[in-house]
Amino acid sequence: ALISLRQLLDHAAEHQYGVPAFNVNNLEQTRAIMEAADATDSPVIMQASAGARKYAGAPFLRAMMEAAMNEFPHIPVVVHQDHGTSPAVCQRSIQLGFSSVMMDGSLGEDGKTPTDYAYNARVTRAVVDMAHACGVSVEGEIGCLGSLETGEAGEEDGIGAEGKLTLDQMLTDPEEAAQFVADTGVDALAIACGTSHGAYKFTRPPTGDILAIDRIKEINRRIPNTHLVMHGSSAVPQDWLQIINANGGEIPETYGVPVEQVVEGIKHGVRKVNIDTDLRLAATGSIRRYLAEHPAEFDPRKYLGESLKAMRDICIARYEAFGTAGQA
Ligand code: G3H
Ligand code: 13P
Ligand code: NA
Ligand code: ZN
């Protein structure tokens, strides 16, 4: 059944767990998420990015999510719009029946240029007014996502600051976060705490604290009633990188956010954990391997079915690690 982000994350805060928010673009991802949630008794957040809407078409995506809820009526599902770059984009999603939208006013409408506080607060407030009138939740963002190792924002189809970022930009200021919540009334707030979008987060195996856990704690202390969101939370599984490269791929050495670090964040108030890259890597690795091992096969259901299984296993692992399992 459809629920709002506020409803789900209030429950997650009360019971001290986190919820992975997986991006969906196609049938296999949608089914993988639902089958994993069904197997582990987990509530679901599925989200559509601008890239997903461009690829599948917003009505197709929304209908696919509806079909998922019809087939698994016992699972609570938040249908969320990821990284809206303007109030108009969010308005369209509300109209299509999304139960939650992200207004990312930390970047301009180009998805690249960092904005000032006044702009961010103004566009986010406009979306909150619209969304709350319809029972729809809103996620905002303060700060610029960037890897504390490389200073790069990373990039996913046009969302990400251009050029090198300063440490100041890459860590959300707790004071500013508190002001932003007071000014906008957002239900959830994406913070910058050392993660970045995409597969290229860290060039070396991450050791110790690659996330600014103290910063997460401090922000959570200042805004205890606003749910924290961590974008760029893929682990970039080394086993899938190896399978991709053993079957014709050429992905350079790279590392993501270890699952244990995300779990540490959840202990300190992170409730929504955005994951896209891990499902992309699992899909690509499983399809490359299947086609390499079955060169005469040409039924797409065979290799796409492999991707479904590979993505489902990642979803199950995250539901279990984040404490989402058993909470539906
Ligand atoms: O925020 C980025 C997500 O990973 C979605 O990326 O727009 O390429 O689908 P996308
Ligand atoms: P990853 O690229 O780490 O999977 O992050 C996805 C994300 O934050 C989508 O908004
Ligand atoms: Na940002
Ligand atoms: Zn994101």
From TrEMBL:
Cofactor stoichiometry and binding remark: One is catalytic and the other provides a structural contribution. Binds 2 Zn(2+) ions per subunit. One is catalytic and the other provides a structural contribution.
Active site per the UniProt annotation: 82
A GO biological-process term: glycolytic process
Top EC class, one word: lyase
Positions with a binding annotation for Zn(2+) 2: 104, 141
Top-rank taxon, per record: Bacteria
Coiled coil: none
InterPro entries: Aldolase_TIM, Class_II_FBP_aldolase, FBA_II, Fruct_bisP_Calv
Signal sequence coordinates: none
EC number in record: 4.1.2.13
Cofactor(s) of this protein: Zn(2+)
Pathway: Carbohydrate degradation; glycolysis; D-glyceraldehyde 3-phosphate and glycerone phosphate from D-glucose: step 4/4
UniProt binding sites for dihydroxyacetone phosphate: 198, 232-234, 274-277
Protein known as: Fructose-1,6-bisphosphate aldolase
Gene that encodes it: fba
